[in-house]
Design brief:
With about 250 residues, the protein is of the alpha/beta class. The protein has a single domain, classed as Spore Coat Polysaccharide Biosynthesis Protein SpsA, Chain A (Alpha-Beta Complex), CATH 3.90.550.10. The protein is built from 9 helices and 9 strands. The protein has helices at about 15-25, 45-50, 65-75, 95-105, 155-160, 175-185, 210-225, 230-235, 240, and strands at about 5-10, 30-35, 55-60, 80-85, 90, 110-120, 125-130, 150-155, 190-200. Strands 1, 2, 3, 4, 5, 6, 7, 8 and 9 form a 9-stranded mixed β-sheet that branches. Helix 1 links the parallel strand 1 (about 5-10) and strand 2. Helix 6 (about 175-185) runs parallel beside helix 7. About 40% of the residues are buried.
Length: about 250
């Protein structure tokens, strides 16, 4: 069972090498690695080129945002399972893909597998909170709370059947995709209590009041686009829900 791992990046010279090494260190070797760069102007491209013999596809060109870049990666993919690992994320260990594939192989009916994402401090390995997949329930999407996107693995056929990420969104394109497949299309998924991805704090959707406001607007828009309903009050409840993720 082949896996496509997609990394999108832009001016990621400080983190991209760790991400690449994380992929190349995987014990499971039936994978292809695709890197889509948005036309970086720093040292990102030179770093990626150091590993070009082990990267199946590398494209660097201007795009229309992160979801446009992810879609490019999916369109070039040939694996039956899709993994999206951003340029400041790493797999938790060398067996991550092994664990993912063993779950898909043990139950051929699984179309989506969700594991945990651990959020660490931006400039250290200190763990701040754990995005525990077991905590997620479908109805939480109405509160603006989604499963951890970096640790969510879909079969490629799901993207072919239900469409790619909507690149009109700047922050919540992954959330809209979850609303579309989990609430509107009623796609079933399997949750496993395994840590799959380490992610640095300070993501685009939560690094400022303005980004949180944009995310909230786009979350509400995602429901309207799928003919479903939520409101500002319900969406704001995602913030207290996140308190449960913090690790003392």
């Amino acid at each position: 069972m082949k896996v496509t791992i997609i990394t999108v990046c832009y001016n990621s010279e400080k983190t991209i090498e760790k991400t690449i090494k994380s992929v190349l260190s995987q014990n499971y070797k039936d994978y292809e690695y695709i890197i889509i760069d948005g036309g970086s102007t720093d040292n990102t491209i030179n770093i990626v080129n150091k590993y070009k013999k082990k990267i199946d596809i590398f494209k660097s060109e201007k795009d229309r945002g992160i979801y446009d870049a992810i879609n490019k990666g999916i369109n070039h993919s040939t694996g039956s399972i899709i993994s999206i690992l951003h340029s400041d994320d790493v797999f938790c260990d060398k067996l991550t893909i092994n664990k993912v594939i063993s779950n898909f192989k043990s139950n051929q009916k699984i179309d989506c597998l969700i594991g945990n994402t651990v959020i660490t401090k931006k400039n250290s390995k200190k763990k701040l909170r754990k995005y525990n997949a077991n905590f997620f329930k479908n109805w939480m999407l109405y509160l603006g709370f989604s499963p951890p996107h970096p640790s969510t693995f879909f079969k490629q056929k799901i993207y072919k059947k239900y469409g790619l990420y909507n690149n009109k969104y700047t922050i919540a394109g992954d959330f809209e995709f979850f609303v579309r497949v989990f609430l509107k299309k009623k796609l079933s998924f399997k949750i496993i209590n395994e840590n799959f991805v380490l992610m640095k704090t300070g993501g685009k959707s939560s690094n400022s009041f303005r980004s949180n406001l944009i995310a909230s607007k786009e979350i509400i828009k995602s429901f309207k686009d799928n003919n479903l309903y939520t409101n500002w009050f319900l969406v704001s409840l995602r913030f207290p829900l996140k308190l449960f993720q913090y690790i003392n």
